[in-house]
Every structure is written in structure tokens, then in C-alpha cells.
Amino acid sequence: MAYSCRMACTSAHHLLLLAFLLFILQHSHMPCEARPTYLNNIIGTNDATNPTSSEVLLQEAKTVTNLRAFFQSIVDLLHFQNATQTAGHKNQLDFEKESELEAPEKIIDTSGAGFIYNAENQVEQEDANTDEAAAEEPHLLMPFQKPASTPGNCKTGNYIDDCWRCDANWQDRRQALASCAIGFGQYAYGGKDGKIYVVTSNNDDIRSPSPGTLRYGVTRSEPLWITFAKDMTIELKGELIVSSYKTIDGRGAEIHIVGTSQITIEGVSNVIVHGIHVHDILTSGPHHILTAPNLRTFRGSSDGDAIHIKGSSNVWVDHCFLAKATDGLVDGTKNSTNITVSNSYFENHNKVMLFGASPKDDYDRNMQITVAFNRFGPGLTQRLPRCRYGSCHVANNFYTSGWGLYAIGGSEDPTFLSQCNRFVAPDATNRKEVTSRIDDDGPTFGGWQKWDWVSTGDSFANGAFFTGSGVQNASASNYDRARSFVPRHASWVAAMTEDAGPLNCVPKSSC
Ligand SMILES: *[C@@H]1O[C@H](CO)[C@@H](O)[C@H](O)[C@H]1NC(C)=O
Ligand SMILES: *[C@@H]1O[C@H](CO)[C@@H](O)[C@H](O)[C@H]1NC(C)=O
Ligand SMILES: *[C@@H]1O[C@H](CO)[C@@H](O)[C@H](O)[C@H]1NC(C)=O
Ligand SMILES: *[C@@H]1O[C@H](CO)[C@@H](O)[C@H](O)[C@H]1NC(C)=O
């Protein structure tokens, strides 16, 4: 038996042995790698030139991991020979890491700016929607079809919530939520016409997930509306790679995604993430992860974002709690577009939301992003959001607790339409400015004075001010690509964002 096995398996064994020897040769003089980014952020202060014993341990652990990943790729090749032919699935999207592209930031001096918006001169938004009756029919700029199956109408003024939240049978009509989005991500279909998939276990196996786990659900080929049987904390062992036409719907349970890895929405479309907590996220990898039935993909080290959107469109993040990650909380990069981030609660994080990762990515000019009805809590430093090249509609958000550096930032001539937000500045006297223009050595398109950034209907408190540039007429066609809905008057913002973050939904009752 042993002899015949040796005959049969001989080529595989030789291949493995050869690979092993090559690997050892290649890595016996591995140069010191840069300090892993998550250590910089989380541990903080150690001198990178004087490696601590934990770094040495980490280095060793990394070598073992790399070795394992290398073997795994050979085993995978033998097991899944036709995996790479899986129709339509991109598995070679290995872009550079955002963290590797970033140089220290140079803030552009805008002190001579011609347009300053503050509490004294704030512009009333003429067409801001203050009509109580209009709560019944969302006042949107893009065509919108209200689902016939949602009788609930809370009349809070929050267009999204009013569309479904007062439906006492929300749990029987979960999929109606998909028709309630607003803004550029409003057509995110999620798993709307798919089956309901119930997560019953918090286990996570990145290579062979079992039915009943979240990872099994997000890697299926068909549309799925994913729900949870009970409260759970899921510690991801590697990136949760979500495929197209999926909704992750945390309503009815308290769901925490924590630990070692991120939610990755990459090279796909039509994903909805609703009602979950994502926090304390680190980087993970390199390793192999199941990304589709019968397909394991090699993944290098992840960025460590909470929700990472790359090369994807039609994505809606709603009513999530997002805090503490290694990189961003919601980052949209590499030709992503049609994204809405709404009704979410953010706290305790440095780089909150980035749309457009690099001055090299000029195709991000196509990006259209809506950031609306969110509540920005304490401990946030910057990027609420930051945009490069694209068009960002920032409307009806409540900045309750200031910011460490700035709220709205950008480079490479992004267009900002800031409407009907409530900005409460931090106490620090030199941090009152909402805006920041950052010179990252990319193209400037004639200088920051030409970038179209306008504030209209915003409400400023504690000395907050917004520096405008470019065309200062929010109705002008320059802002058409950034206009995605008609917001409510800023005086409604506190009430409309009161329930930002996951809702406490009880079956047979309203959320
Ligand atoms: C390989 O592909 C064929 C047809 O494309 C399929 O029937 C078979 O199940 C696949 N094998 C594996 C291991 O995925
Ligand atoms: C960006 O995406 C659009 C469609 O989503 C596509 O037409 C275009 O070719 C993409 N550009 C790049 C540089 O990938
Ligand atoms: C984004 O949405 C617009 C408007 O619905 C649509 O015309 C466009 O094709 C979408 N782009 C992508 C890449 O899905
Ligand atoms: C602003 O732009 C709109 C649309 O082009 C135009 O009708 C209006 O007159 C402009 N307002 C001012 C003050 O220029």
C-alpha cells in the first residue's frame, strides 16, 4: 500500500519538497520588514529601530504564517484545479495597500479664503424640506419607488427610517428595507429577491465554513438576505469576503463583528450591511480564504478597515455602529461608486471614512458618495469623510463632539456639497474649521481655490466654520454630480439621528 501510494503521489510530494527548499532558501535572509501597521496604531510608541521581543515573536510568527500560506497555495492548487475558472469571480485584485501609499500630510493654507460659512452668516437652505407632510413621500432627486409592502410611516423626517421602521411586521417584510435607501447607494439591491439565510453559529472557519455560519452565507453564489437567530459576537479569523447580492441584516439580534479582521466588499456590487456593530478590527493574513463555493483565494495582509469597499458599486451601509479599527471605518477605494453610508454611529477612531485612496487613482473622479443621517460621536480625529477626485454629498449628519483635526477633507479636486448638517466644533481654539484641504502631491487642477466645495443650510456651533471654494452657488450645475436627495432643515438633524447605529428591534413590534 505504502509503496503504491508513493508511486501515485510522487509528483505531488516532489513538488512540495522542492517548494519547501526554495522557500527556505529565499527566506533565510529575509530583510527586516516595516513595522506592521496595526502595531503602530494599537501599541503605539515603541521605537521601530529597536525591535522589542514582541516584534521578534511577531516576525517569527509571520514567517511561520508565510510558510503555511505558501504550502496552502500548493495544496489548494491540487485540490481546486478549476477554481480560477469560476465564472465572473475576480481573484487577482491585489492592489497596493493604502497605508503604503501615504506620506505625512501637508495641510493647504486656506486662511486667505474668500468664502467662510459660520454661525453668523450661515446660509438658509431655500429648498430644505421642512414640510411635515413630505415625510410621507421622500423628497428625493433621483427617481424613487416606495415599496408597497411597507405600511409603516413614522413621520420622523428621516426618509430611510420613515419608509419601514414603524412597520410592526418588519420581521416578515425584512426585504422591504432594500427599497428604502436614499442617495447614491439607493439602488443597492442586496439579497432582496433571494432566500432568507439564518446565521445560527458564531463559528468562523476561513477555509471550510459550515452552513449556519456568516461566512458560509456571504460566499454563496445566489442572492441571500442574511439574518441572525440570536445575539452573537463573531470573531473573524480572516477577511469576511462578501459576494454580490447579499444583505447582512442584524435586526432582531445584537451582532458584534470584532477581532482580527474586516468586512471586505471587493470587486462586487449590490451589498447592504444593516444593523451590526463592527469594532476593534485588526489586520489579518496572509492566508487562503474561501471566497466562493469551491474557491479559495490567497489574501495578503488586509488593511484593517471595519468595512472595506474596493472596486465595488451599489453599496449601502445603514444603522451600523463603527469604532476602533486599524485603518478606516468605512473606506471606498479603487473605482468604487454609488455608495450610501447612513444612520450609522461612529466613535473613537482616527481615520473614519476615506473615499479615494490615492492621488494615482484618477478614475475615482467617477465616485458618487452619500454620507447622510449619521451621528459622529466622541473620539474621532479626521475624515468625516475625506474624498479624492469624486463627488461627495454630506447632508443631515450630526457632528456632536467636534473632531481632532477636521471633519470634511479632500485632495485632487473633489466636489463637496455640504447641506443641512449640524457641526459642533471642538473646544480647541485652533480646531474650529470643519474643512481641510490636503496636499498629497497629486494633481491640483488649478489649485484648491477652484475646487467646488459649498456649504448650504448647515448649522454651526461652538465656533465651527466651513471654508468654501470654487462655485459658491449650491444650485449650480457644478454640484449636480454631488446632489443625491433634498435634505431636511438642519434643525431636524438632532432628532433624525437620535437612533443612529443598530436599532433595538423586537418582533411583532416596531424597531
Ligand atoms: C470543476 O468544474 C466542473 C465544471 O466546470 C465541475 O463540474 C466540477 O465540480 C469542478 N470541480 C471542482 C473541484 O470544483
Ligand atoms: C471603473 O468602473 C466602471 C464601471 O463601473 C468601468 O466602466 C471602468 O472601466 C472602470 N475603470 C477602471 C479604471 O477600472
Ligand atoms: C451608479 O448609479 C447610476 C444611477 O443609478 C447608474 O447610472 C450607474 O450605472 C451606476 N454605476 C455603477 C458602476 O453601478
Ligand atoms: C445659482 O444657480 C442657479 C442654477 O444655475 C441659478 O438659477 C441661480 O440664479 C444661481 N444663483 C445665483 C445667486 O447666482
From TrEMBL:
It comes from the Eukaryota. The keyword Transcription regulation does not apply. Residues 1-34 form the signal peptide. One of its GO terms (molecular function) is metal ion binding. The keyword Metal-binding applies. Binds 1 Ca(2+) ion. Required for its activity. Pathway: Glycan metabolism; pectin degradation; 2-dehydro-3-deoxy-D-gluconate from pectin: step 2/5. InterPro entries: AmbAllergen, Pec_lyase, Pectin_lyas_fold, Pectin_lyase_fold/virulence, PEL. Residues 231-429 form the Pectate lyase domain. SMART domains: Amb_all (SM00656). Its cofactor is Ca(2+). Pfam families: Pectate_lyase_4. Keywords: Calcium, Lyase, Metal-binding, Signal. It catalyses: Eliminative cleavage of (1->4)-alpha-D-galacturonan to give oligosaccharides with 4-deoxy-alpha-D-galact-4-enuronosyl groups at their non-reducing ends. Its EC number is 4.2.2.2. Belongs to the polysaccharide lyase 1 family. This is Pectate lyase. It comes from Ceratodon purpureus (Fire moss). The lineage of its organism: Eukaryota, Viridiplantae, Streptophyta, Embryophyta, Bryophyta.
